[in-house]
Amino acid sequence: MTEFSQKVLIFLAILLWTGICNICAQSCYTLQQILSIADKNGTRIKIIENNALANKEQAQMYFAEALPNIELSSGLSYANQTLRGSQVSSNADMVAIFDRLDGLMVNWSLSLKQPLFAFGKTFNSLKLASLGKDVLEQNRLLQRDIFFLQVIEQYTITYIDQFELNIAKQSLARSQKLLEKIQLDYEFAHSSRMDLLRTKSAFAGNVADSMRAATAKLVSRQKLNVMIGLPDTCEYELVLDTTERYSEKPDMRKSGNIELTLKLLETRVNDRLRRNAWASLWPSLSLTASIYNEIFSIDTTGMTGLYLAYMEQNGGLPPNAPEVLFPENPGPVEYFNPDFFNYTAGVLLTWNIFDGTRSWAAHRQAKLKEGQSKLELEQMKLENSNRIMEIQGQINSLIGAIEAYRLQYQASQKALEQAEMDIKDGFIDAATYLEIDREYNTAARQLDEAKLQKLLLQAQLQVTLGLPVYKNE
User: What pLDDT does residue 440 have?
Assistant: First the structure.
């Protein structure tokens, strides 16, 4: 046995042993099983769901505009207040004693503001909250479909690489068998040196194709594993099951393109935003109420000393003076004493008469956006309708092509079987056999690629029609 043959046998043994080890550790998955794994384990799915939950708070912000606003505030400040005009110093003689009060002031307030009438702004906010929830749900469904479509695309790539490796292994085995025969025939002068060289060249090419296909399959399967949430080293075989749901014709009665639905919702949102912008140009009426308390801390003004000095110098109070010149300073324990609380309630009218035309500009902008979204919606309807017809036309043409490729594959398979017998009997040469082998590989490749292309187009049609690419039954 020649050195070249020994290397070939070693390579074949390693390739065969590796294949057997992989098969023992592998499972087989159909497309629907791959999508089910992606739905359960895919990180992208978890991101989509978490993002949808986080964005729900945006809808709550619209809803909050229709609810009352309750605010609690508290503070500590230094105050220097005049007593002129107050009850304490209403008598002119009191001003002669002292006319200002200063010290630290502690205060708190609890206020409520409830919109009553704002030219439909409250109602629009409730509608915006409802529309916002619909937008979030439709966007979540769209992101899921886009992800599952990407999984299907990677599935087709991985399946093609897997198919290429299987074809390469088969061709390698046939070319090895042919090489052994041609070498033996050449030794007995039954084959020409040209046949031997061409057979060696074909075998070397098949070895290279096998190595390239094995690497491509490994890389594409790792990408698929990462996408669907499996360990990147997980090994399995993909199965093309033509009885699955993508082989069925979609139900057009249940269709509704999600992108069109989102654009329609966007149009409705812009309509409500335009109404809100218009309402901002007019006055609004709100109910207001508050409870508050503000007290001075322990007297640091020296007022008591001034008061006593005045009494001592003048022999008593001024004529017609009240018994108490100023209210008693409450202590910290009176901070939440209801006896010191103040209450207010009323109706507040606000009207932004002039803000540098900002409100008018906001209204005009909202009106233009509403008109733009309506035009985009009509354009998207036309494009989506054309896209549906385009995909359906491609699927119909592939149905005929698949049948033609199947007939071609069956004929090439029979031709290869006949060639294997003819090469043994010496009716054909090596070059003819290798040509028939290439034709068989090409026919098999074209048939499977057409099936995968039809599967991918049917998944794209699901998205275009608004039907779920994958639905957990």
Answer: 94
Residue range 330-357: mean pLDDT, rounded: 75
Structure tokens at 343: 């209450």
Residues 6+ apart with CB under 8 A from 50: none
Could you tell me if 95 and 89 are in contact, meaning their C-beta atoms sit under 8 angstroms apart?
Answer: yes
User: Are residues 317 and 97 in contact, defined by beta-carbon separation less than 8 angstroms?
Assistant: no
pLDDT band at 252 (very low <50, low <70, confident <90, very high): low
CA distance 175 to 132: 64
Tokens representing 407 are 């007939």
The C-alpha atoms of residue 364 and residue 422 are separated, in whole angstroms, by 83
Token pair 């309807």: residue: 381
**Nearest residue to 291 via CA among 116, 118, 70, 100:** 70
Radius of gyration of the chain (CA): 43
Element (H, E) at 179: helix 121-187
CA-to-CA separations, 241 to 249, 266, 285, 415, in angstroms, rounded: 16, 40, 66, 27
List phi, psi (to 5°) of 287.
-90, 130
State the pLDDT at residue 240: 85
Task: Say whether 46 sits in a helix, a strand or coil.
Answer: helix
Asked if residue 345 lies in contact with residue 113, where contact means CB atoms within 8 angstroms, the answer is no
The answer to whether domain 3-41+123-283+360-465 has CATH 3.30.565.10 is: no
Q: Boundaries of CATH 1.20.1600.10 in the chain?
A: 3-41+123-283+360-465
Query: What pLDDT is stored for residue 185 in this prediction?
Result: 80
Quick: pLDDT tens for 305-330: 555 566 656 666 666 655 544 444 55
Which residues fall within 8 angstroms of residue 277, CB to CB, at 6 or more apart? 359, 362, 363, 365, 366, 367
Q: How many CB atoms lie within 10 A of CB 163?
A: 20
Strand partners, 27: 236
- Cα 461 versus chain centre, distance: 21
Bridge partners of 78, per DSSP, are: 104
Confidence at residue 331, expressed as pLDDT on a 0 to 100 scale: 52
Helix (H, G, I), strand (E, B) or coil at 338: helix
The reported pTM is 0.71
Measured in degrees and rounded to the nearest 5, phi and psi for residue 212 equal -65, -45
CA 65 vs. chain centroid, Å, equals 27
- Whole-number Å distance between alpha carbons of 98 and 324: 14
